[in-house]
Each structure stands twice: as C-alpha cells, then as structure tokens.
Amino acid sequence: MAAQGHSEGQSVNRPPLFDGEDFTYWKTRMEYFLHGFDFQIWSIVEEGDLIVTNEKDKWTEDDRKKISLNYKAKSILCCALRKKEFNRVSACKSAMEMWEKLRITYEGTDKVKETRIDILATQYERFQMQSGESITQMFSRFTNITNGLAGLGKSYEMGDMVRKILRSLPSSWTPKVTAIEEANDLKRMSLEKLIGSFPHGP
C-alpha cells in the first residue's frame, strides 16, 4: 500500500503527490524528480521564470520556448498537489513563488527554520541507542533525524555519521565496534555498510 501523502509517487513519469504530510520528504523527492525530468524546469522552480523581454506580438521561437517552460514548471507543481495544497498556491504567478510559499508554510521563516535545525541538531548530538532497540530501529530513527536536517540545509559528513552511530552503541557492542574500527577506514565507510556489519544484533 502506498504511503499516505505520496500515493502517486511511485512512477518515474509522475511527480510525487503532496497532501500536507511530511513536507521535507516530499520536497526532496520533488527536487530529484525535477532534476531527472528536466534540469531547466528545476532551475525555473528554484530561481524564477525565464525572462522574455519582447512584446507578445514580437515573440521569437526562443521566447515561446521560454514561456512554455515557465508554464510547464507551474503545471508540474500543480499536478503534484492535492486540492487543499493547490488552493494555497493557486494565485501564485510563478513556479518559484508556489515553491517558496509551500516552503514557508511547512518549514517556516528563516528564524523558525533555524529553530528546527537547532532542535534536530541537538537530537543528533545526544543520539544514543535505546534500551530494547534493534540496530534497524536505531538506524531508522537516526536517518529520520539526519534526513530532516538535510531537508533544512544542514548535513554531516558520512564519516562523522558513522562515528556517531558507533559512539551511540552501549558497552555490550564494544568488541564489535573495535573490530569495525580496526577493519575499516571510517572516513570512507557508508552507513549501509556499517549497519550491515550488525545483521543479527549484539
């Protein structure tokens, strides 16, 4: 069954659908979709419409292509929104304005965004494996934090995240942690490889 809020998002030919739930997840997927669909479309969404200076009756073929791309960017965003979300942005004049309005609605102003980053960064710094938690559950909780931060523009080096996971493990994992540190270059190790080193729990 498709996840709530993104039921249309499994096809590479259709944009992920947003209904107001989990904006950070949708925004990241939408960026990837637009990059793959047409990078120029993503540039229009991110930076604004392509500029046409000629009057309509003097449009060149290049002008018409620019206008078409501008409308296509708006159309794709509209197709990615449920009715409630579409109504929020239906009066916007450009794809960039639509995108920015959604971003501010769900991420807040820069001040609110900074506060959310601070909260998630604190969760990251204090991250520890919880009692009775499996490696898979811990990893899922960890990636929820790091993905949330990435969606707000803050990211960590892979090596730093690998070390963070290792430091979050209780003392019962010390022999395995030591073995991993001795057998691997932690700067080059991926989180997936790290988690794969603990397939059966402590």
From TrEMBL:
It comes from the Eukaryota. It holds the Pfam family Retrotran_gag_2. This is DUF4219 domain-containing protein/UBN2 domain-containing protein.
